[in-house]
Amino acid sequence: MLAQRKSRKSVLLTSLLLLSVFALLVAPTAAFAEAVTDYEFASPLFDLAIAPDGSLLVADAGSGVVKLHHDTGTLVAALPGVAGIVPVGQEVIWAVTGGGEGETSGKLFLITHGKTRLIADISGFEAEVNPDGGIIDSNPYAVEQTPSGKALVVDAGGNSLLMVDRKGKMDWVATFPSQLASTANFKNLLGCPDAPPEIAFYCDLPEALPAEAVPTSVVVGPDGAYYVGELTGFPGAVGISRVWRIEPGTLHAECGVSPACSVVASGFTSVVDLTFGPDGTLYVLEMDEASFMAIELTFFGLPGLAQGGTLNACSPVSGSCSEVATDLDIPLAVAVDQHGMIFAAVQALIPGAAQVVTLP
């Protein structure tokens, strides 16, 4: 049941069979610049990154890491389930896989010239250490590299930020707190008080419930600090997702009480990715203005609820933001190259429709 799930981004774990069944229920992508390539992704597309040679790397969970160069797509490394990537050298890439039961699930890898090497078991660390002290649940979702060459991994299921060196030594940097969230948006999406009979009992939920942070993104800023965006889990309230700043070198910080953590931007809905532009602008990508629940409920047979996602350009100093693009259909990832060109993965959960586009 939805209310009983630890607030990992459960929509991202929905069966691809269900996704294909409901693909026709998703509105066409709004008018952008032309798609970067006609390469057919297996999807879902969970991450984008700019390689040192200027090409675009795509984390295609259906197949692995794909390189887009001169309008051509090439599978660089087969790694089904890949959720987050960051290039750290010429043809060297950190990659994490999402949680699950597969042999390669919940792991951190280093890809070198197309060869994949296991570095650490992220889900195993959650099971053994459980930094946030909640229900054991792991869904590694994003990865970044520190200036010292270590990997930063966001575990959306574990509500934690981890640090791993190339020998696999791991520790936790920070955990992220729950917050009280209104159930009004969820009930509105269900059509309460006239929700379908099989889910009408959700209309009796209290006015507010604790919502876990569900961190989905991490990026190192120009100041060396770690910036983390949170989806904010069930019940999918609007306007309460935040971007945290964690002091570089931090270990074992409980954000919300630790002085090493601060909220630098807030008021978002279902943040799924962060990236910095060459001018120091922090780009914040929201999955949907009606929250991730609008997408998830589409896949449970309630179509037409999504309002579209938004890309915001923010100052990490003042926290002020402006909208760059709106009405994005299921966007999950954003990347900005050295020239300021913005790329986004849209319809990112839909087989046969997922694509990478440029934004104005």
Roughly what percent helix?
Answer: under 10%
Number of helices: 4
Give the distance, in angstroms, between the N- and C-terminal Cα atoms: 40 Å
Strand order of the largest sheet: 9-10-11-12-18
Structural class: mainly beta
β-strand number:
26
Strand content: 35-45%
Rg, Å, rounded:
19 Å
**Strand/helix succession:** HEEEEEEEEHEEEEEHEEEEEEEEHEEEEE
Weakly predicted, low-confidence segments? 1-32
What shape does the CA trace take?
Answer: globular
The profile of the biggest β sheet is: 5 strands, mixed
- The average pLDDT is 91
What would the keywords be for this entry?
single chain; mainly beta; 4 helices; 26 strands
Which secondary structure elements does this structure contain, and how are they paired or packed?
Layout (H helix, E strand, L loop, with lengths): L15 H6 L23 E6 L5 E5 L3 E6 L2 E7 L3 E8 L2 E6 L9 E6 L2 E7 H8 L10 E6 L5 E5 L4 E5 L5 E6 L3 E4 L1 H7 L17 E4 L3 E6 L5 E5 L10 E6 L6 E2 L6 E8 L2 E6 L5 E5 L5 H7 L10 E6 L6 E8 L4 E4 L5 E5 L8 E5 L1
Parallel strand pairs: 12-18
Antiparallel strand pairs: 1-2, 2-3, 3-4, 5-6, 6-7, 7-8, 9-10, 10-11, 11-12, 13-14, 15-16, 16-17, 17-19, 20-21, 21-22, 22-23, 24-25, 25-26
